[in-house]
Amino acid sequence: MILPKFKAQSRLRQGNANTSSRIKMLWFNVVTIYESLRPLYYPLKICGLAPGPFHRTKRRYRWRERLYAAVAASGYSWAFYVNFFMQNFSYLQSSSLIVVICYVFTVFLFLIEIFTVLRSVTVWPKVQRLFRKQHEVDQSLRWLNVPINHAGCHRRLTVTIWAVLILLTAAVLVSYRRAISKSALGFSSTRLLTYLVQSLGYALVVGLPIVVVLLLKCRFRAVNDAFRMYFPTTPTSGGFLTTTAPGHTAETAVCSEKEQLTVLRQIKILHDKLNDVVELVNYCFSVQITFCVGLCFVIGVVCSFGLFRAFIYRNELFYMGVLNFIWYMYYLFFVLFFIAVGSKITREGKRIGVLVHKAINCSTSTAVINELNIFSQQLLHRSPVITCGLFVYDWTLLYTMIGATATYLIILIQFDVSFPNLVNVNGTATSPGV
Question: Which of 281, 298, 344, 392 lies at a 20 to 30 A Cα distance from 59?
């Protein structure tokens, strides 16, 4: 049921949204969050990270999920065996330290992927609950005349997944061909495939949490837009002047006290559900993201050291140092993207608190002010924060990583200058990655 004051606006917006959806997505019927995530589900299924569908189903055949996880773990174990035992990193690096770190990196990347595959079997019911709560939020937002653009989400996911797959395949192929042209190793399609499997598996391990957090950010922003629509922050003579979203034109809306109370109760429920989703995200994905952050920190120190050596010594392994640093940026990109989106969710959570206090200052109804004060207390006790328990995923974490990387890099450079005899200068080849 739509509020009487906004029936005409609701019909116009829904009509425009339906027309835009039909024009943009001619071959797909994308009206729910499950359909918008369809492009992501199939790569996750192939890589062993989706033991079941996103929507809720009865778990009758759990042995199928366990068999599915065992097959996926076997595939990653095969890729690890090829990259660890059949690859000779001593031919490919100019520093003994970098050689050791290459083997350590291969082990930790394998452990992260195996851990994610096995954990996905146990936490998948919570992942389904996570998407079900967001689906309920979408239905309530449609009632508040702030619908989510599922067709746009479907389109962006499709383009992003295909772009990552094509660019990753091209990068692995070019890097590996360059490596074998500089070394005594023979070209092997098996090694090329294992590099692609591990790199794509890492992208999906971090990619699913990134997509979930992005969906959360969109819904927090939609809740803020709904609050702006019904609770103006600037009083005028004929009503209240509100701004529905940044960059949009202002609208004048007059709401009765009863309508504002009804909408406010709905917004409080929506905000509470979204905070429940944030807690589920922290439970389901925080551990694997923490491992990825630690992995990126270690290889960041070593690759920065390798890049320093490449520019200082300028030997035949200069290309190796630059290439390793480029691959490090690939692994770091996903972690940085997750940190950026987590920071935006925290910012949206603080923004609605500012809007609530502005609405309190502009409201003239005692009942509305009392409900807004209660909502302010709710925001104080339940604010959205993406965390693993040890630290919060925001820009402060990135600054800490940069400072620690610089500290350890200085230590490695000092050891390298003090003990030049530890350097292995007999290497004649390059590597497709760290």
Answer: 281
* Tokens encoding 64: 């199928």
Q: How far apart are CA 44 and CA 55, in angstroms?
A: 15
Where is average pLDDT lowest: 77-86, 111-120, 157-166, 375-384? 77-86
Task: Give the Cα-Cα-Cα angle 113, 94, 313 (nearest 5 degrees).
Answer: 130
* pLDDT the model gives residue 274: 93
- The whole-angstrom separation of Cα 285 and Cα 80 is 23
| Structure tokens given for 268 | 């409080």
User: Where are the strands (E) in 138-256, listed by range?
Assistant: 234-235, 240-243, 250-253
275, pLDDT greater than 90: yes
CA distance 382 to 223: 15
The tokens for 73 are 């773990």
**CA distance linking residue 105 with residue 69, whole number of Å:** 23
Burial of 19 (0-12, 13-18, 19+ CB in 10 A): exposed
Three-point CA angle 44, 86, 66, nearest 5°? 30
User: DSSP letters of 363-414?
Assistant: ---HHHHHHHHHHHHHHHH-----B-SSSBSSHHHHHHHHHHHHHHHHHHHH
pTM over 0.85? The answer is no
The three-state secondary structure class of 185 is coil
DSSP state, 144? T
CA dist., res. 52 & res. 151, Å (int): 23
The residue among 385, 391, 197, 220 whose CA lies nearest residue 289 is: 391
| Per-residue b or e along 292-329, where b marks 16 or more CB atoms closer than 10 Å to that residue's CB | bbebbbbbbbbbbbbbbbbeebeeebbebbebbbebbe
**Taken in order 193, 300, 293, 207, is the CA torsion positive or negative?**
negative
Q: Are 319 and 430 in contact (CB under 8 A)?
A: yes
Q: Collapse the DSSP code of 252 into the 3-class scheme (helix H, G, I; strand E, B; otherwise coil) and give the result.
A: strand
Residue 327 Rama label (left phi>0; alpha psi -120 to 50; beta): alpha
Give the Cα separation of 280 and 85 in Å (integer): 38
According to DSSP, the residues that pair with 253 across neighbouring strands are 240
DSSP state of 182: T
Segment 134-137 long-range contacts (CB within 8 Å, at least 24 positions apart): 134/33, 134/215, 134/216, 134/219, 134/277, 135/32, 135/33, 135/34, 136/273, 137/219, 137/270, 137/273, 137/274, 137/277
